[in-house]
Amino acid sequence: MSLDLDFVRSQFPALGGEWAYMDNAGGSQVLARVADRVSDYLLTSNVQTGASYAPSQRSLERVSASRGAFARFMNCDPGEIVEGASTTILIRFLSEAMTGRLQPGDEIVLTNVDHEANIGPWLKHEARGVKIKWWRCNPETFELDLADLRALMSERTKLVCVTHASNILGTINPIAEIADIAHAAGAELVVDAVAYAPHRAIDVRALGADYYVFSVYKVFGPHHAVMYGRRDKLESLDNIYHYFFDKSRVPHKLEPGNINYECAWGSIGAVEYVEELGTRSGASAGRSAIEAGFAGIAEQERVVTARLMEFLTSRNSVRVIGRTSTALEDRVSTVSFTVGQDSSKRVVEGADKAMVGIRYGDFYARRLVEEHGLLPQDGVVRVSMIHYNTVEEVDRLIAALEPAL
Questions:
Q1: Residue 212: φ, ψ to 5°
Q2: Which helix (H) or strand (E) holds 83?
Q3: Are 189 and 182 in contact (CB under 8 A)?
Q4: What domains appear along the chain, each with residue ranges and CATH number?
Q5: CB burial of residue 110 (10 Å; 0-12, 13-18, 19+)
Q6: What is residue 1's predicted lDDT score, i.e. its pLDDT?
Q7: In the chain, at which end, N or C, are there fewer CB atoms within 10 A of the end residue's CB?
Q8: Residue ranges in the chain modelled with pLDDT below 70
């Protein structure tokens, strides 16, 4: 399936300007329909939910509709959707809610390729006697070996925490296989999907993850985030809200202070946009449209990634950090590289002058950058494209990068 790029780009007002946006792993541009929804909520239904009067009931219906939309998006039940401000805060809430279940001597497996959002909250349990085990990537290939994970597992392992796609490497990790390994040992799996969610359809049932989290502002929406948790798993977590919320009060016991109502309502626009991409290709509405929409998204991203990768791998001075394959099953369209021992900052500044937005640094995956000696050269150069980027924009980036390589 090929996307109608004229239609796609018309949905994002910011794309009508002079800049080419290729820093999308930091945050995508926002759909007009999302902004319209946020405005509509604030101007027509901005009251607290839960009262008996009609505007409050309408507000509740809108917030509930967001759970239904993300249930379609991830193939789960609305009651399994927890919402919050960001992936970072949702994982912190999840970690706090697991305090009663993690005892001294229990083990948590973390990776050194994850964003710190899926590392820092779990490290706090060390002070309570929980043991941290590190699943480290190969220092040459940056790959996580499943055999290494199997060797780390024991009867005391309670959690495996891993990213679905690295926000630096772009590598897609085999979540279903990781889930099987975790579950065989009696452990649960927490997946950070921030760098995956804008690029592929998500099916949490097929993946087998127990908890699966991503930020909507990376998926064409507002600063908002969503976490799936298996219903029985959510019910067994500690209540982190008011004392009079019992443990069965899911998902609200995990949403202290209430969620952002206007962002919840606005976020539905991102789901409906992907569905529209699918129905425009002939798919029926609902889940099948989401899958078809992402099929088109993935193919467009494969095309632009291949164009960039062909250029980068033709330069002897360039080291691609991670896989050079552009096959759909191998990676998303986030590509990082270094240029010899040169400063990555200097490389990026050349693109700035051409009004192409890319970025350098560690992207909060600091452990990956530190442990592999990349920090002294200002980290890596990262080009993070999504489906609204075009081959012409990639060629514009290449022209800007070429003098520095």
A1: -145, 120
A2: strand 81-84
A3: yes
A4: 5-30+287-404 (3.90.1150.10), 34-270 (3.40.640.10)
A5: buried
A6: 67
A7: N
A8: 1
